[in-house]
From TrEMBL:
InterPro entries: IspD, IspD/TarI, IspD/TarI_cytidylyltransf_bact, ISPD_synthase_CS, Nucleotide-diphossugar_trans. Catalyzes the formation of 4-diphosphocytidyl-2-C-methyl-D-erythritol from CTP and 2-C-methyl-D-erythritol 4-phosphate (MEP). It holds the Pfam family IspD. Belongs to the IspD/TarI cytidylyltransferase family. IspD subfamily. Pathway: Isoprenoid biosynthesis; isopentenyl diphosphate biosynthesis via DXP pathway; isopentenyl diphosphate from 1-deoxy-D-xylulose 5-phosphate: step 2/6. It catalyses: 2-C-methyl-D-erythritol 4-phosphate + CTP + H(+) = 4-CDP-2-C-methyl-D-erythritol + diphosphate. Its EC number is 2.7.7.60. One of its GO terms (molecular function) is 2-C-methyl-D-erythritol 4-phosphate cytidylyltransferase activity. This is 2-C-methyl-D-erythritol 4-phosphate cytidylyltransferase. Keywords: Isoprene biosynthesis, Nucleotidyltransferase, Transferase. The record marks R155, K215 as: Positions MEP for the nucleophilic attack. The record marks R15, K22 as: Transition state stabilizer.
Length: 240
């Protein structure tokens, strides 16, 4: 299969409080975007589309730098929109004709191991409409209303979904067309492309995610990512 990778790095990062796009925030001596790109097997894809904010020449330059450093990878840089859906649509517009499948990954999950991408690609090749990385829910989950617990939800069939997520191009394009039929409120409730496929009646499978694939949203997430990165980069003692 010809598979493209879309990396969504167009988020504002308002909740981080750095006054800059999230992907440009410092992490481990570089930036969130640089840490993300360094861990992705870029040459495993027929094309990589990096989606950055329109007002961030620094992030666009990062994309061009990685293109120079990885001449065997076809890396394209484009700009995002005001919403995630618009950013993904902009990225899809850059996908080359004849592409069979796409993986979509949030740059805000910079420590995601390469194995997650391989698992999604493998499952997608087995003819699924969509594939998401996921982890079992370990916390007790309760439904509340007006700060009052209504019930405890059975977590045995619940998972926490991450990225990368993979889709056949045909299924994703059909699902994106379905988005135009939704009311503004319904469209706003769509939080990822997998949910869009669900609403369009497509089949979405799961594969194992990784605890390292945490999403950086708050300052606490960034601090945790720094700690994890320090551990990943520290030399490990060999076993006799």
């Amino acid at each position: 299969m010809r598979t493209s990778l879309l990396i969504v790095a167009a988020g504002s990062g308002t909740r981080l409080g750095y006054g800059m796009p999230k992907a440009a925030v410092p992490l481990g001596g570089s930036t969130i975007l640089e840490q993300c790109l360094a861990r992705i097997p870029l040459t495993a894809f027929s094309q990589v589309v990096l989606i950055v904010p329109a007002d961030s020449p620094e992030l666009a330059e990062t994309g061009r730098y990685f293109a120079e450093q990885n001449p065997d990878a076809d890396i394209v840089v484009t700009t995002g929109g005001k919403t995630r859906a618009q950013s993904v649509a902009n990225g899809m517009a850059k996908v080359t004709e004849g592409t069979d499948a796409v993986l979509i990954h949030d740059a805000a999950r910079p420590l995601t191991p390469a194995g997650c991408f391989e698992r999604v690609k493998t499952a997608l090749a087995a003819s699924a409409d969509g594939v998401v990385t996921a982890l079992p829910v370990v916390d007790t989950i309760k439904e509340v209303a007006a700060d009052t617990v209504k019930r405890t939800v059975d977590r045995s069939n619940l998972v926490a979904v991450q990225t990368p997520q993979g889709f056949s191009v045909a299924a994703l394009q059909e699902a994106q067309q379905h988005l135009t039929t939704l009311s503004p409120v319904e469209a706003e409730s769509i939080t990822d492309e997998a949910m869009l496929l669900e609403r369009a009646g497509k089949i979405v499978k799961t594969v194992s995610g990784s605890a390292l694939a945490l999403k950086i949203t708050t300052a606490a997430d960034l601090h945790l990512a720094e700690l994890l990165l320090t551990d990943l980069n520290s030399p490990k003692e060999s076993t006799p």
